[in-house]
Amino acid sequence: MIKVSNEDLLFAIDEKPETMYVWHSRFEDRFQDHAHLKGQLTYVEGGIIFLYTKEKSYFLPARHYVWIPAGVEHHLQHRYQAAVVRNIYFDTTTDHENPFYKQIGIYPVNNLLLEMFLFSERWNGNIDPKSKEYDFLNTLKNILPVVSEHPLPIALPTTENQRLRPVLKYIIDNLANDWLSLESVGKATGFSARSLSRLFQAAMDTSFFQYLKLARMIKAMEKLLETDLTISEIAYEVGYNSISSFSNTFYKMVGKRPSEFKELKQATLTKINLV
Predict the structure, then answer these.
(1) Contact partners, residue 130, CB within 8 Å, separation at least 6
(2) In this predicted structure, what is the pLDDT of residue 85?
(3) Domain segments of the chain as ranges
(4) Tell me: the pLDDT tens digits for 141-166?
(5) pLDDT at position 275, please?
(6) DSSP label of 20
(7) What pLDDT, on the 0 to 100 scale, is given for residue 148?
(8) pLDDT higher than threshold 50 for residue 218
(9) CB neighbours (10 Å) of residue 157?
């Protein structure tokens, strides 16, 4: 197998703006922050993935794909073992026709999209216009706004504020503790509760409590898909003493009950085993 450097691969993806580029790999996360001249669709079979931009971090669960618009700086990080990462980079010729292509989104993968992703595995590299392969991928791109009307409504804000970053790390490291509060986190990190509340709103454009809920739900999603813990065990591990409170909060923020979300793992494993 010929090894290709990161720089060569990034160059190859954007070398010909008029083409589509297909790349099936385990290693898109070997890149640090970067951007493409093309729109990017990434779907992971097995494992889970996090997408990081300068503004937010996104959780990509099983049976979902992420759309990254052209020009958006990002990097991907895999958690746990991933079977295959399917990346398709689309030319931007028609991006102006639909606002879908201008914003990051994480969307469920229905059976039609999944079969199209799997069909594309026979190709790698540049796909030239006027070819049947290009027509197929263009059809895939064109149906995305039609079948992807409901993005996963959860993303975790990030910040470059150096005063707040240690606070965020403290929160993430202590999500299992139900005593997390403005007062306790402020005391541990050198802020008054009032100052910390103001800093969150100014630097993150969200409240401390909203950030805490988001962080807990993302950690719960990760554990639901990548562990064999029960829902009650997961609730306790993300700081909830009440299973009903955890389930209701999860449903309000994710749009599915924890039990429904956990089924995505088995559905994906079943599909991979059938291929």
Answers:
(1) none
(2) 82
(3) 6-147, 160-269
(4) 999 999 998 898 889 998 889 999 99
(5) 45
(6) E
(7) 93
(8) yes
(9) 17
Task: Give the start-end residues of each E strand in 175-268.
Answer: none
Q: Contact 47/78 with Cβ under 8 angstroms?
A: yes
Tokens of residue 87, six digits:
């990346």
N residues, the chain: 275
Averaged over 97-124, what is the pLDDT?
93
User: Domain spanning 6-147 has what CATH number?
Assistant: 2.60.120.280
DSSP 66-104: EEE-TT--BEEEEES--SEEEEEEE-STTGGG-GGGGS-
Angle in degrees, 0-180, between the axes of helices 243-254 and 208-226, rounded to the nearest 10: 100
Q: At the fourth CATH level, which superfamily is domain 160-269? A: Homeodomain-like (1.10.10.60)
DSSP class of residue 255 equals S
Gap between the Cα atoms of 190 and 46, Å rounded: 41
DSSP 33: S
Q: What share of the chain is helix, strand, coil (3-state, %, to 5)?
A: 50, 20, 35
pTM for the model: 0.84
Q: Which residues contact 54 (CB under 8 A, 6 or more apart)?
A: 73, 158, 160
